[in-house]
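Tokens as discussed.
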């Protein structure tokens, strides 16, 4: 049987490699990267998020282990945000340190390693993963943007409360949080999505992972990883090792154990998710570093995930 870590990461590596080769061959020009990024961020991502959340019934989920996962994520996010200066760049790097590739890598890895019981725990986390982290990151980023405008003299007379309210509004009326919220609201009605609507959404959502990863590969053609390797390695070590260690410490300290604890730790150890790249593109900050970090984090994951899974089995 193929090692579950290897079988989960190889498709990701291959899709990134295909994008890299495509970019090198000139089949996708550098000028088209922004348009493709908009396609992913404005069309494919909302379709995936809305359809995923449209079937989630909150009352059926066990959120106890998930709660500690997000406590750890928020603590680490806050630490990186403050450490890096509270800017847009800091917010994107904080998201990179805490946002896991739960779908492309997490689902096949957990399914192969822990079976259906493990997937139930993972799906509980996935149901609110994007809602919690991406919505929080969006609000933080919009606040940073508003603060930068004030500092640049673009809104110096505006009351701080109005700035905060404007940032929160922009954080909700946004291609990421809005479809999550609308999807959740739809799910609570008990209605079933008509097939004529559900099928196109499914096709668009299925395209997100491959297109986003190919786009990462295309972007790598314009990035010299060597120039960012040290910073990318540091960020990858925080994501792949420090984050799961913090999750393990908090969960173990509260008496959580067994499969649910293991799945939370392994999920925290997953490489950086493609949504972080989309955010760096959207807010035009740290794009090269995030791209390099995703590549390093995924490659490093072949070793770190195996290590984390071995250590988690001892808890």
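Sequence:
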């Amino acid at each position: 049987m193929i090692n579950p870590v290897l079988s989960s990461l190889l498709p990701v590596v291959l899709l990134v490699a295909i994008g890299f080769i495509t970019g090198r061959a000139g089949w996708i020009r550098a000028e088209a990267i922004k348009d493709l990024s908009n396609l992913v961020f404005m069309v494919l991502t909302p379709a995936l998020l809305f359809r995923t959340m449209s079937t989630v019934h909150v009352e059926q989920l066990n959120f106890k282990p998930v709660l500690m996962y997000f406590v750890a994520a928020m603590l680490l996010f806050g630490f990186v945000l403050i450490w890096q200066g509270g800017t847009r760049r800091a917010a994107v790097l904080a998201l990179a340190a805490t946002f896991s590739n739960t779908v492309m890598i997490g689902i096949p890895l957990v399914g192969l390693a822990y079976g259906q019981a493990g997937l139930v725990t993972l799906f509980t986390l996935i149901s609110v993963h994007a809602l919690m982290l991406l919505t929080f990151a969006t609000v933080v980023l919009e606040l940073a943007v508003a603060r930068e405008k004030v500092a640049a003299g673009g809104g110096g007379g505006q009351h701080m409360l109005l700035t905060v309210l404007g940032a929160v509004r922009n954080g909700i009326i946004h291609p990421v949080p809005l479809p999550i919220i609308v999807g959740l609201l739809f799910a609570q009605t008990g209605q079933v999505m008509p097939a004529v609507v559900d099928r196109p959404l499914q096709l668009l959502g299925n395209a997100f992972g491959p297109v986003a990863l190919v786009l990462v590969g295309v972007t790598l053609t314009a990035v010299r990883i060597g120039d960012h390797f040290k910073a990318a390695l540091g960020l990858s070590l925080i994501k792949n090792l420090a984050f799961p260690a913090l999750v393990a410490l908090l969960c173990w300290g509260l008496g959580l154990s067994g499969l649910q604890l293991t799945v939370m730790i392994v999920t925290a150890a997953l490489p950086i998710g493609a949504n972080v790249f989309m955010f760096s593109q959207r807010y035009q900050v740290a794009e090269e570093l995030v791209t390099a970090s995703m590549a390093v984090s995924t490659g490093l994951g072949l070793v770190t995930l195996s290590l984390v899974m071995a250590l988690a089995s001892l808890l």
